Amino acid sequence: MDATEKRLVELSVSGDVEAFETLIQSHQKKVYNIALRMTKNPEDAQELAQDALVRAFTSIKKFRGDSSFSTWLYRITINVCTDFLRKRNKAVLISMEQGAAANDNGQAMQIPEETPGPEELAEKAQLKELLRDAMDSLSDEHRQVLILRDMMDLSYKEIADTLNVNEGTVKSRINRARTGLKEIIIQRTELFKDYLVKLDRKGGNS
Amino acid sequence: MNRCDYFLENLSSYIDGEMTENEMKEIEQHLQECDSCSSEYSILKAIVSTCNELEEELPDGFSSSLHARLEKARDDMLAERNKTPGLKIFSQIAAGFVIVITLGLAIRAGFFGNGFLGQKTASDAAPMAGSKSESERFSLSQQISANKNSESGTSADNAVTGGGFGLSGGMQDKADGSDVTIDRNGYKVTFSTPAAFGEPGDTGSYFTRVTVVVDDIGEAVELIKDIDKELDEYGENAFVAPEDTRAAFSEDITEEYIELKLTYGSKDAQQQFLAKMMSAFPNIQIEPVPSGDDKEEKAEDEQEGITVIIEKKK
């Protein structure tokens, strides 16, 4: 933790809202995106992201700098979202079968009918859309590790700290989650396989 | 393991750079040699890089509505600080809450069977014999002792689930063969004898799930921290929780539910922790959970230990 951050934390402990806002400036978008991917719903995501940020503010005196501030903040966010999902899932569990049945009736393919132009950008956008959908159909646990790894860019160690599990678990969970993601995507469209390979050959990014 | 299996299993670690140099080299070599794995790699890597770009912008008005909420939170906090301090949990107990101890299932392992009431606790100076010293042992809860006899006997009709513990308000303070009754600050708690929980010394693999329902999770965690700290001072029974549990202790607390995982260095320490927990929380539930059940993705660090689940009272 650098000196500025430390000072901001101290000010936040004393109840300085502006200092706290400065502190979270570069993190709040990620907090929102964690919540968005976890809940799959922008309204819930805004609410929960703010819940998490408010909670970080009110419990910042408990932040001791053992981990980085951002990891601590993401952990709170994950906890807030997990709580929310746990409660909601209790209610939703029963209606899940109906949901699955509806999908079989033709909604499973959410890929637009019209073929995108040859422009890679369009394809990329479509892939994003597809990926978002696929992500949403992963289990909460698998989605969680991918959010932390691929969206938050946390190391395995940081993910392990955040989720309170060991690194071996993180490693196998990430691998399984990605494989799951890939299978969902491939299943939904064989076409993308070529595109993905093409994208990578062009360099993609890592 | 065949090389492709090994490759696929470690592909994510490779993409994430979470490998040693030697492991990386091994993967790279296979990548050169195997077309099918190489295409698998391309696909996964493209997915990962697209995942990196999924981030969306904050909704309009996010910052301003957050600002309002933060200001409100600060005002609430300041108001809270000016109120009389004191733990709600303690005042609840002081108000005469009935202590109900529920034992869901027979405990297989030794900690009830093997000196739960303190007979074998090394740190106990007094020789342990009979229920008198047992009740001394159990008066660890100074928190409650300020309120002796306030509600004695009101609990006789309380339902007790499971077989192990019975609450017997108003009963004589005695050990009568199969049960041991302890007078605890006006409440009498009956423990079944060790035989009911399995052979003494049977330390079959299990962990213990402890559930408490409280008004304020933050305060409950503070209380558990205090209990843990007391145990820490025993030295030989030093708390050996992994770092990540420490972190859970010191950091965020969710509003409705929190789970703590504790591992103690000795059975004694575990027993003492449970005994103190029972003293501190009126509605505690304790149940053994055999490990090795087919829980999905059982983490390697979930060995014997105690899982404490703290739930907010509805």
DSSP summary: helix tally of chain A: 11
Radius of gyration of chain B in whole Å, from Cα?
Answer: 26 Å
Overall geometry of chain A: elongated
Low-confidence stretches of chain A: 93-118
Mean pLDDT of chain B: 59
Major sheet size, sense and barrel closure of chain B: 5 strands, mixed
Order of helices and strands of chain A: HHHHHHHHHHH
The secondary-structure element order of chain B is HHHHHEHHHEEEEEHHEHEE
The secondary structure category of chain B is alpha+beta
CATH architecture of the largest domain in chain A: Orthogonal Bundle
Q: Quick summary of this structure?
A:
The complex is a heterodimer of chains A (206) and B (314). With 206 residues, chain A is mainly alpha-helical. Chain A is 75% helix and 0% strand.
Describe it.
The complex is a heterodimer of chains A (206) and B (314). Chain A is mainly alpha-helical. Chain A is built from eleven helices and no strands. Chain A is elongated and about 55 Å long. Mean pLDDT of chain A is 79; it is low at 93-118. By secondary structure, chain B is of the alpha+beta class. Chain B folds into two domains: 3-51, no CATH class; 90-312, no CATH class. Helix content of chain B is 40%, strand content 15%. Chain B contains eleven helices and nine strands. Chain B has helices at residues 3-15, 21-33, 35-51, 62-82, 88-94, 110-113, 130-138, 142-145, 217-232, 243-250, 267-280, and strands spanning 102-103, 165-167, 175-176, 179-184, 187-192, 206-214, 257-262, 285-290, 306-312. In chain B, a hairpin with a 2-residue loop joins strand 3 and strand 4. In chain B, helix 1 (3-15) runs parallel beside helix 3 and helix 9 (217-232) runs antiparallel to helix 11 (267-280). The two termini of chain B are 51 Å apart. The interface between A and B is large, with 77 and 60 residues.
